[in-house]
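Supplementary Methods S3. Input chains for the assembly prediction are listed below.
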Amino acid sequence: MSIRKTGKVRVRRAPEDARANILAAAEKLLVERGPLALKLADVAAAAGVANATVIHHFGSIDGLHAALMERMVGQLIAEVLALAEKGGPTREDTQEAVFEALFEVFETRGAARLAAWLELTGEWRRVTHIREAIQSVIVRRASFGDVNPQQSLDLVLISVTLAMGAGLFGHALAELVGKPPGHAREVGMEMLRVFHAAQVAK
Amino acid sequence: MSIRKTGKVRVRRAPEDARANILAAAEKLLVERGPLALKLADVAAAAGVANATVIHHFGSIDGLHAALMERMVGQLIAEVLALAEKGGPTREDTQEAVFEALFEVFETRGAARLAAWLELTGEWRRVTHIREAIQSVIVRRASFGDVNPQQSLDLVLISVTLAMGAGLFGHALAELVGKPPGHAREVGMEMLRVFHAAQVAK
DNA sequence: TTTCTTATTGACATTTTTGTCAGTAGAGTC
DNA sequence: GACTCTACTGACAAAAATGTCAATAAGAAA
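Predicted structure tokens for the full assembly:
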């Protein structure tokens, strides 16, 4: 009777699958425990592989960070676009869907935490193609037809700012003033509606 | 002719001064280079003391973090209150001053970065007395007389959320859409005014 | 001046985190 | 089955960061 460690033998994945597996684990860690939990050993353990495997696929811990950002930003953009598409038939519905999508992505998913991490570490400025992607999506796609271009840009700018703020601090602040977790989001969307209407009226 | 290293001999400060000196250096690092730059050696170097000195005064790097939070939160609260006091004679002026104060503190000073760091690391939840301090200030002081208590609370909540979002991401986002750095702040304050007015009207 | 307290420090020890490497083992191809 | 390619791994090395300690010295008190 041969003695053999319980559990898996050794999983061998296609390179892309291996990378995806590790990145998924890393993303989960980032969202749940914050950027400081992104240690090589932690990520490897979460992904169920050895430390060396992570290095093998990403070269270094920084390489992993970069790949993770790219992945998350890509998902973020895709998600905003997808949710925004789902807007109803009228213009109001569509715009409502855009607001909804922003909060959904930044608050429910970990996008706000990712963005905060990028901002705090300054890695943000280095990844120019990420900026370009965001730029093209935000500026070109999310425009509002019923206000002038200038107002539209302002509206986009402030929507994203607010959604990010709410995504990052909304829950904590709501709890602080004794409100349910989603309250900041509700008030935020209401304020955006009011502001939008005011701009249309002008 | 005795050989002697150039520069200072050995500075001996009163304990509070020593702590204040180190904390000031740490705060500068945090604001300028982000939380990841808060290494023991970096802080010590920035403060012009030995690593061991930092440990001596704060016990550990975590102790330093905690003390730094306390300091910055204290400053933050004091600053908001001071700026809010400076409001002009009319009620509109005062409320304007509150908005202004929020953006000033969160955007110009590093408060938003501190808050983001706290949120990301989760240290936030541990420091209950900080939460209480914020709570008492935010909830009790910053109330708006011309709307009902419920609306007032919402207004406070959303103001802080927006100010934090703008403080953390405002510059980057503004640059992304080709606007001057202070643009997010301006639009944000405008939106708050509009929203406030809408609530008053209701 | 002498004494005493303790802030300060360099040198060192410990811990944590990252990275290297030679060898192992899946999975396809011959 | 033998061969090849390379994803994968454990063990180890290197680097980075934190923390310890005995000795030093600034400044107040005696």
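Chain B has two domains: 12-59, 72-201. The first helix of chain B runs from residue 15 to 33.
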